[in-house]
Specification:
Radius of gyration: 17 Å
Largest sheet: 9 strands, mixed
Strand content: 15-25%
CATH superfamily: Formyl transferase, N-terminal domain
CATH class: Alpha Beta
Shape: globular
Number of domains: 1
Structural class: alpha/beta
Distance between the termini: 29 Å
CATH topology: Rossmann fold
Number of strands: 11
Bound molecules: glycinamide ribonucleotide
Order of helices and strands: EHEHEHEHEHEEEHEEE
CATH architecture: 3-Layer(aba) Sandwich
């Protein structure tokens, strides 16, 4: 059974979906740790209440970003993970973290990459007048929100949408999208070289599309 570490910063609804998919047997995997950089993250309390290994590694406990990232990396690597999953983790991982991780890192981002890397994706989508929006699950590389995309969701932008209503509809697609993507990663033949994912069919840009549920 594959070992998953999930990084969060807040609500943790994607993390909860991943935990539930593991406990219900939808994913043949186990969440071995939930790691937050925010002590008051709601998702951290939820994970603790489930009896999961839930840890906080706050930025304020470390003198520098470098030391903080080293502590985050040690917290993940110590659990011997097969995959490190970012689920609403709002810090940019340093190149040293990415190079030192013992497992590939996966992220969910609330836009259809390569559109709208970074923050405020829903408002930027509205400002641009897009008619379609969604979320992407991708492999994390040293470039922000830039790694190979595994799958994307697709949500229609409605005339009456504001950033909150759009975010809520995108979030509904994120949970099955993330589970689907993890399932692909766990079950497809994925090759590694020196610990790096070799992009194959699985990781070609935008091979899979999810419609709004
Ligand atoms: C999700 O919408 C996720 O895509 C986004 O934060 C939200 C977390 O929700 N992630 C990012 O913006 C990463 N840059 P959750 O805590 O309920 O899973």
């Amino acid at each position: 059974m594959k070992r998953l570490v999930v990084f969060i910063s807040g609500r943790g609804s994607n993390m909860q979906a991943i935990v539930n998919a593991c406990t219900s047997g939808v994913l043949n995997a186990k969440v071995v740790a939930v790691i937050s950089d925010q002590p008051d993250a709601a998702g951290l309390a939820w994970a603790s209440a489930q009896g999961l290994n839930a840890r906080c590694v706050p930025r304020g406990d470390y003198a520098s970003k470098t030391e903080h990232q080293a502590a985050l990396l040690a917290a993940a690597n110590d659990t011997n993970p097969d995959w490190i999953l970012l689920a609403g983790f709002m810090r940019i991982l340093s190149p040293a973290f990415i190079a030192g991780a013992v497992a590939p890192i996966v992220n969910i981002h609330p836009s259809r990459l390569p559109k709208y890397k970074g923050l405020d994706t829903h408002q930027r989508c509205l400002d641009a007048g897009d008619t379609v929006h969604g979320a992407s699950v991708h492999i994390v590389t040293a470039e922000l929100d830039d790694g190979p995309v595994i799958a994307q969701s697709c949500v229609e932008v409605l005339p009456q949408d504001d950033a909150d209503s759009l975010a809520a509809r995108v979030l509904k697609t994120e949970h099955p999208l993330y589970i689907f993507s993890i399932h692909k990663l766990l079950t497809d033949a994925v090759e590694y070289s020196d610990g790096h994912l070799i992009p194959g069919d699985l990781c070609e840009p935008l091979p899979l599309q999810f419609s709004e549920f």
